[in-house]
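Data's thin. Show one?
=====
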Amino acid sequence: MIRRREWLAAAAAACTLPPRAMQAAAPPRRLRATPASVALAGQPALAAWAYEGRVHGPTLRYRRGALLDVELENALPDPTTIHWHGVRVPNAMDGVPHITQPPVAPGERFRYRFTLPDSGTFWYHPHLGTPEQVARGLSGALIVEDEDGPEAEHDWLWLLADWRLDASGRIAEDFYDYMDVSHAGRLGAQVTLNGRSVPGEQQAAPGERVRLRLVNAAPARIFALRFAGATPWVIALDGAPLAQVQALGDTLLPLGPGMRADLILDLPREPGARVTVHDVFGRGERQLATVVADGAPARTGPARTAPRAPAPNPLPEPVPQDAQAETLVLGGGMMSMGGWPDDPLPARLARRLRRMGGAREADPVWSVNGQAHLTHDPAHAPEFEVARGRTVRLTFENRTAWWHPMHLHGHSFRELARNGRPPPGRAWRDTMLVAPRESVEVAFVADNPGDWLIHCHVLEHHAGGMGTRFRVSA
């Protein structure tokens, strides 16, 4: 067993700044996780869990290359951690309990310190009891500003989430419900944008340009966004700038849990004109937001040209021709005949008795390469090991009837192919939405040493076994 002080020593050693710079740094910013009563999802006083008493937590803004120095103070009744989703952090700062750090017990603190290597839109959330802690409200945005980003009059964050409330208007506490785990995950009827019920409304002057940062912080809900009244350009996905901006046009913008997108939206010049945003994923359609061109026109003269992309991040380019090939077969779930992990009846009955007594655990209904990984157990052998600096060509083969946003910790990858066909743009991602029965190939350079998770970001799917880890040698 590794003692807590040894974990803390390893975390300190992982910081990329020299000791003198550490000593000269300002005190850390506090993020206090605590139960809180918040106005949310149409409820004037909803009992939630929050960072600094806010749902969603404070938006953290930095410049690329800056030091993030945040101390988590746990005032919750349960242990917790913080995972910095999409950020290429040192391994000891990744927030995965028992793998990269010990759980932060109630009343304890943990200090996260690392430099921010990439610009873009990221977010933070717990990685312990995640289906419950995120569903109770623990999440927030992390924005690392571009050194020379596209010009815009406004920089807006839209953090999307959903909430399941019970008949009394409280957050429903069925966090590991078998039907949720084995189907599409926990879907709440109350959808919010920045904590407010949809549809939301914002205003800008006619002709003004808006940078719109979208974050899907829902436990399981997938959005497919359609814009009407103006055509936005996509300039970045999962924080990584595109090589060429893409006009969205009539194309839908998919946004699975954990995924982000940065858009540029030029408002119409006509006062009173409206741009609407709808979610059309699945069977229904829901209006999420309206942007109103309010006031006198902000611009005259010729129409604006397409925006330029932000400067690229310093990501190492994969070399697929000399790559280590790995395949992750995604199995299990309802309406699937293959990939169900072993779950003997005595174990199943014992688990359900524990849940009746208040235990928080899911049934093993999902698998990666035939095995369910229900916890962050360091006893699990890595799915594969790779030498530091080598390219990994990774295939996600989805043999299930459900969508899976597969998230890679500590690295970003290039999309190479979907069902054997190269996608346009070969974008960088850290969370890839894989459709039912679909095969997706990606590649990344394994340049960040340590043990890293790969898992479905439908949080109930991960809790039910759809996750694993790999090791990058030092």
User: Anything to note?
Assistant: The chain has three domains: 4-145, 154-293, 320-472. Residues 319 and 391 are 6 Å apart (CA to CA).
